[in-house]
Amino acid sequence: MKAILSCANTRHFIAFASGMMRLVQRQRVEKYRSHSQLSYIILCRRPTRGDIWLLYETGGAFCLLFLLRTVAQENLRTALQYVVVFMTTQVFALCFTAVVYRASPFHPLAKFPGPFLNKITSLKIALTVASGRRYSIIEKLHKKYGPFLRTGPNTISINLHQAVGPIYASSSAWNKSAAYSLGQLPGAGLFFIRDREAHNFRKRHYWAGAFTSNALSDNYFMLNCRTNFLLDALARRSQGLRGVVDVSTALQHWSHDVTGEFIFGDAYSKNLLRDGDRRGEVAVAIFEMEVFEVLGEVPSLFDVLWYLPLTRIFRAMDVSAERLLALRRSQASQKRNLAYYLLKGGGNSIPSLSDVDLRQETIVAVQAGTNGISTALTFALYYLTRNPKKCEILRDELQLAFPDADPDGSLDPQILGTLPYLNAVVEESLRLGAPLGSFPRVTGKGGAMIAGTYIPEGTIVGVPAWAQNVSEDNFSPSPTSFLPERWLRNEDTPDMCTRSSAMMTFSHGPFGCIGKPLAYQEMRIVISKIVLAYSFSFPVEFNTEIFEDGVRNLRATSFSMPLLLELDRLR
Ligand code: HEM
């Protein structure tokens, strides 16, 4: 301290202090990965709303204790009793005031209808998310309350296609809400950058290269090989089980393998399809997304709960990302996978990503690139099995386009992109195969007008993805039925309404899914290869109602009852 105080030159002192801060920060980041939860709390904490509240309450309690002991001359036991009574009353009074205000006509969102509990506490929507049925609960609530629904004290869900443009798709799309803050994790991946400008910079300079048509062509060979592994795995896994295969699990393994190689190239040497998921990687990835999704509804609670062992799961993926990135770096490979673009950065004037950001980016890619696609593919096969005639139309189209195709050979992606029925099946599977919630954004300064309704500044707003995907206004007739024909514009379908701009599966605009072109490529090749190679049906004991009831979505989708299919090899 003396040394610092005696430092005459203030500029030197500032330089010294900021150098020390950087050093401490670097050490924090390194320590965070190798230490237990407790040392992580001590070493890495960044003050958050939750921390400040705890500090305020503890400080208040000590001040009161001090005053009671010194000014009022109370003995320790009585003083402590007073402190406990006072603090408890104060917390209850705060909660009570908040509840009364939130439910009162003076609240800025008072005019929006919704269930009482949703209006007074975010915990209600967090519980709805935790149930895994948010997608259908919110859809039903909209049917009851109308297009504007208050889902939380400061949150509105808008089930109108007119809201999609202003909130997500326009050049002035709104910033992401605090639901995207990742607890106390250092670094930031694309998905978690809430500010539109910062997000755009990261997307353009580090990610975009990996999703150009050239880059996707470079990856097509890998995609083809990994999909052939899927066909082999389906054949292998069906042996000894009367031809019955757990297709949803096989697709999860396939998506992890494909995405792993898409990100890390040869450094990703795993093969979950062949070896099984011995380390439970699929479950870890799903659980991480689930924790994030539930706690994201109550960000201030996330700040406090972050210190529980529950969130240790976030560090498990970080360690794996670090290992694979180190391996990818040591290979000095020029193969243009995602890690190549992330490591290369945007050019001379653009700084490289820090190690911690790099790890976050690859974790984002694993999370984003695996569950959505395996879910949509599971639904595609489910609906094709439920609708054998439609499956036959598709098979005929594919056999005509590839008369001599060996299922293990490569199917030309250009041709796949032009097949009308295949692409209609893909669109319909993406529409019904994404039981997603909404993607929360925040209204900017001055608020906003949506469909003639004023939304106050700072309100958290979202368009419910599933409700839009199955809305009669957007997709009719029979919005919940699997009708690929609705995507084919011809004289047989004059009465069909198909509003593709309202489909929310990939969201829209600057924060929308960057992996969309890859996802379409994956959907086309996997569906085509399986339909060409196998005929499939449900085993006798399979119950479609139980399957549909068991679909849970907490951003990641899981199936309480896996999709079981009986497969017969055709070619
Ligand atoms: C059928 C499959 C897929 C679906 C349904 C899907 C859906 C979505 C949605 C809805 C978002 C926006 C989420 C939000 O704003 O909260 C998103 C973002 C994202 N997706 Fe996908 N996705 C799929 C496949 C992929 C694939 C294969 C990748 C490849 C790595 C990918 C990478 C990403 C990334 C990086 C983001 C964050 C984009 C950003 O913040 O700018 N996705 N995805």
TrEMBL record:
Keywords: Heme, Iron, Membrane, Metal-binding, Monooxygenase, Oxidoreductase, Transmembrane, Transmembrane helix. Its cofactor is heme. Pathway: Secondary metabolite biosynthesis. Pfam families: p450. The keyword Cytoplasm does not apply. The chain crosses the membrane at residues 80-101. It comes from the Eukaryota. The keyword Endoplasmic reticulum does not apply. One of its GO terms (molecular function) is iron ion binding. Heme binds at C513. Belongs to the cytochrome P450 family. This is Cytochrome P450. The lineage of its organism: Eukaryota, Fungi, Dikarya, Basidiomycota, Agaricomycotina.
